[in-house]
């Protein structure tokens, strides 16, 4: 199996994640050693310095701890090219563990190798790229009932699960990910294929129209 050549530095949480990804990646992989990066100035400086030279790809678990580490890396990497890679929230445990983690979700090391390959190939693109078609905006998320409306949290969770993304993705991160994957037209096409989500959005739109008429 050919390895994926990555120019940016790949930042992961632990040694087991790095071992798994080393099967796929021809490039530099750095571990945060879990929360140790929070107090290790040496590790922080290494990540920042390498990030300035090569850019960063951040790939952490989909649980709360993984998102906390991801936020920290993004915070210290100001003015550096950073691209976030997200794994889906899948229930389970890694083979080496006696019991699942606190949230019962598979980490990076437990992901299917083909899924990781797809995510890495997708990430192995220019950190700034222009997609053809109209971009998705916050206003679009509102109109689709994903943000700022009654039941938006449930619809957003449904969308994230269908799209294979972690359910705790913030609105800002969701918009960033969606625009890296789809144009507005492509995203609308995706929603049409996912009837359960589309039906929920239609019901939300009908409800919004009724509310608008009542206000008038």
Task: Write the SSE topology.
Elements: E1 4-5, E2 9-12, H1 15-22, E3 25-26, E4 29-31, H2 41-54, E5 56-59, H3 64-76, E6 82-85, H4 113-123, H5 138-143, H6 152-162, H7 171-181, H8 184-193, H9 195-215
Parallel strand pairs: 1-3, 2-4, 2-5, 5-6
Protein described:
By secondary structure, the protein is an alpha/beta fold. Helix content is 49%, strand content 9%. It has nine helices and six strands. It has a four-stranded parallel β-sheet with strand order 4-2-5-6, sandwiched between helices. Strands 1-3 form a two-stranded parallel sheet. 27% of the residues are buried.
Largest sheet: 4 strands, parallel
Terminal-residue CA separation: 63 Å
Instruction: State the shape.
Output: globular
Q: How are strands sequenced across the largest beta sheet?
A: 4-2-5-6
What's the number of extended β-strand segments?
6
Low-confidence stretches: 204-216
Q: Tell me the helix content.
A: 40-55%
Query: What is the count of DSSP helices, taking H or I runs of 4+ residues?
Result: 9
Give, in order, the helices and strands. EEHEEHEHEHHHHHH
Query: What structural category do the secondary elements indicate?
Result: alpha/beta
């Amino acid at each position: 199996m050919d390895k994926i050549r990555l120019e940016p530095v790949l930042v992961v949480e632990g040694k087991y994640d790095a071992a798994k990804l080393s099967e796929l990646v021809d490039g530099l992989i750095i571990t945060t050693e879990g929360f140790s990066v929070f107090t290790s100035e040496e590790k922080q400086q290494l990540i920042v310095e390498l990030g300035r030279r090569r850019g960063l790809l951040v790939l952490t678990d989909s649980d709360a701890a993984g998102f906390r580490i991801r936020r920290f890396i993004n915070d210290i990497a100001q003015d550096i090219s950073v691209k976030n890679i997200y794994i889906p929230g899948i229930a389970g445990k890694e083979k080496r563990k006696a019991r699942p983690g606190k949230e019962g979700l598979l980490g990076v090391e437990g992901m299917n190798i083909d899924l990781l390959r797809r995510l890495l190939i997708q990430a192995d693109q220019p950190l700034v790229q222009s997609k053809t078609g109209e971009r998705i905006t916050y206003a679009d998320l509102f109109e689709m009932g994903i943000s700022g409306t009654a039941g938006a949290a449930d619809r957003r969770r449904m969308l994230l699960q269908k799209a294979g993304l972690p359910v705790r993705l913030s609105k800002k991160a969701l918009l960033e990910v969606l625009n890296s994957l789809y144009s507005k037209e492509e995203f609308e096409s995706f929603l049409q294929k996912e009837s359960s989500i589309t039906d929920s959005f239609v019901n939300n739109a009908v409800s919004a129209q009724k509310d608008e008429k009542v206000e008038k």
